[in-house]
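Q: What does the assembly look like in three dimensions?
Context provided by user:
Components: two
Sequences:
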Amino acid sequence: MDDATGYVPREFKYVSHKRRVKEDRRFITGRGRYAADVRLPGMKHVAMVSSPYPCAWIKGVDASAALALPGVHYVLTGEELFAHTNPLLAGVDVPGVKRTPLAYRKARYAGEWVAAVCADSRALAEDAAELVEVEYEPLPFVIDPEESLKPDAPRVHEDHDSNVFFHRKWVWGDVEGDFARAARELSFRARWSRCSTVPIETFVAVADWDAGQEVMQIWASIQMPKYPEQIARALRIPANAVNVHYDIDVGGSYGQKRGIRQTIVAGYLSRRLGCPVRFIEDRLENMSGGDAHGPDRIFDMQVAFDDDGTIRSLRIRATDDCGCYPGRAPLQLGKPVGAIVGPYRIGSAEYEAISVSTNKTSQEAVRGFGQSPTNFAIETAVDKVARALGMDREEIRRRNLIGADEFPWKIPSGSEYDSGDYLAVLDKVKAASNYKVLVARRDALRAEGKLAGIGLSTCLEPSGGNSSFEPLFNPKNDTTTWMESVQIRVDMTGAVTAMINTSSSGQGHQTLVSLVVGEELGRDPDSIRVIHSESLAALPSNSPVGSRMAIMMGGAATGAAKKIRDRVMEIAAHNFQLPVERLVYAGGNVSVDGDPSRTLTWEQIVDTAHRKYHDMPLGAEPGLQSIYTWEVPTGGALPNADGTCQMYPCYSFEAHIPLVSVDPETGRIEILEYYIGHDCGTVISPDIVRGMTFGGIAHGIGAAMYEKFEFDPESGQHLTGSFMDYLMPSAHEVPDVTMVKHFTPSPLTPMGQKGSGESGYLGGPAALASAVNDALEPLGLEITTLPMRVRDMEALLAARTK
Amino acid sequence: MSDHDIALTVNGRRMTSRAEARTTLVDFLRDNLNLTGTHVGCEHGVCGACSVIMDGRPVRSCLIYAVMADGAEITTVEGLEGSDGALSPLQDAFWETHAMQCGYCTPGMLIAATALLARNPDPTEHEIRDAIGGNLCRCTGYVQIVEAVQIAARAMREAG
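A: Here is the predicted structure of the complete assembly.
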């Protein structure tokens, strides 16, 4: 098999050029096809009955009044579902904890789904849900993660010996020695509050058990690795009896759309009732009982540094409130291992990761998979060191950032950074911000009596995905394969169709693959069709997680296209009776080197491949098609005993500079200017990378200034179940952003590309905290808790005036 | 629940169907009239994904009962293309700037921007942000949407 890896610099004809995005046409004309648009004859609808208690035994469910309503077909209890399905996979090994789609015998958070009602319409199902009588016996509960760690805390899972899902401390390098040798040290606590990406589309699953074919057909707004296998395992059917339709457009996910519980409920009901079943979460179901919640983290940080600003060592203790059940959430403490010292030349690090359960909605995956909170904590540490030394925040970064000539650079936790030029990006964004003028504007605002500040963050986006955190966090899981596949088919007419093997939630995979295949084959990307497979026809994929598709799907597309090209050359060589080395490939046509009059066109070669076996090389495979499945570069190794491992392969970099003002009375933060310098190697589609970065910044603004899932500590109730309480930035809150690009190719990928799916989000919150703290500095105030909502800022300012 | 016959004009075509009094306009458009281009986001009037133009004004179709729209003239995203199938200047500009990613909020954004340009052919950036301020997008950070509206406004002015 030929090798897709290995970057060779070249001029691109299509890649990196401004071209319209393939997917957009269907979206602007209202012709996207989302899961909620799937309507099947005889389809029934689901509504959930949710627990009003944060913790309670379920003593009984009386569905008689609900079932008495005409048009109501079934009330599914957790008891019945548990008896007929397998519990869902957990990301870590937690004995005694079973994760089920509906609460089994005990409800463990307010809003947990206890029963599912199935009826002729969603409205009817909601009517009936109100008539389901559930008898509860309320129990003590725990909301605060640090309270939950105490030995006498109420137990979230009575069969587990504590409320801890995962706890481990790693020491990489001579942390103790570095702290002893360092001239100074400081410690602080930083808080990243429970927030998430909250797509505008809630999770939707349509399940249709085809009893004739014995196949469960699934249409869902999913973004998750190994989804069909998880469905099969839970429903106790073979994986080749599950067919997920990946051509469904997903209305945003950013990591979050993990709806396995929703799918199992719909799938079970469809099989039980013999009809198609659709579950569309309403907003409250989504926000309280769905997959809406994200990392909720306390960082206890210690930094050792010298008087010249050299940061020697870091100690990070991250306590993450996982909520109720351990899906993949605890693993979000694992990915940051691969960038645990940020982009800095820090010689040693200690990392203590604690995932603790509480009686809250379960945490799910979120854009960056735990890296953005960690970046915020690291950047806050760097700013604090600068402040302690009276040093400029830029200067301290310049002294500690890894130099362009130092790559590949291995960090203490064992991951090697592939490439970068951090100082060049910093210089570019400073120039773009017209930094002196920016400082003058800040100072002028201050002179007017306002609070104003400039922020700075320099952060990494580890990209490409890998499974290393799985074996690192669960020794029973020895997964080291993390692959992606692309299939290409050239039909008799010469038209090219590529097949990808996962659903897309806005990443533009059709555009990505058409550009890469077009580039490699020299064919116009607009002429290349890219289809999403069904899972029963799909090749191995790990879905668009971990900022990986430009790398992995792009790499697989290159691999598959090169195979096509090689076959074209072989057919041409046979017909010219010349060795391949004497031929030239251009735009699909093959000519004899130096004699363009001897050319076989793309159409001729394709026709030969499909119809003229007499002109084919002896024993050649008829037709023109290829498959390429690529293992993630640098992947394939288990972590070492000391926890060192290669996490992701490619490291993108971003430097943010925002200017903010803070109203000294109300505490309201306004973002006045925003600049970002960004390097994700070779950009495949400039418009897509721009959009992802701007969108990431907007998510970062939300996490930094607005978004928080709140629970009442007294009642245990979730307080933010709607968009009235969970505030997200609109076009008023997100400013115009100026973005400057830098290109440091990755040596590990065919076109030098790195990931960009999490860009903006990974440095935005850190930069905004930096800016607000710059604004607060004249008052001697500081904030290290996100989000910095108006009420939080107001309280901070008010405390000072008292 | 009482059922009602509802007749309205959608994208220039007269349409009738029967629905419960509690059926929202967005559910009516999607389920009864099979116009699934309009999307449901929050169902409580905040996100704007369900925006349609009703009698000349952009409204949130999740906050209106279908019976309230009886006799109304509605424009949905499906009605933005010209009768010849040509993209509207706004649709074209959204494509040109890639003013979307997942496409879920896009119909509502297009409706909000269409209503803006109908009443204000030369909006400032602030006016554009104001007009789409009731439409949440979680993908784009709005930058390319604002650019698209500016491009479309210019194109429409130049075309007269």
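Follow-up: Chain B has two domains: 3-79, 89-159.
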